[in-house]
Amino acid sequence: MVRIAPQVTLQEMLLAFQEVLARNDMFAHHHVQREPLSVRQRMTDVLSALTASAFVDFVHLFKPNEGRRGVTVTFVAILELLREGLIEIVQAEPYAPLHVRLGNPSRHLRAVPDEGPADAAPPN
Predict the structure, then answer these.
(1) Partner of 88 for a Cys bridge, out of 53, 59, 103, 106, CB 3.0 to 4.6 A?
(2) 26 exposure class (CB count in 10 Å sphere: 0-12, 13-18, 19+)
């Protein structure tokens, strides 16, 4: 029969057990598998959703049942479409929900160099 010393509390045992579990998790093996998710296919899905409606709520483009990977693939697809100028993300006012609409592909985003303060002397 196993006896627990009277000075050891259940709380201390639980803490020790949690440490064992944490140590065990550090040695767990992970198997990486290729997901059948395609950024290009998701870009097509987003564009299809936008042809059906002028505006789509940003959060409705994501499929939570696909998990973190699916959400990440959708986000990357949205960023790529935004970069290519095929979509625009709009917001009615600060902190309002984001909406996505078809963009004008001829209008591309470009970086504008910071010219600094108006009274700054030009570089030599």
Answers:
(1) 103
(2) exposed
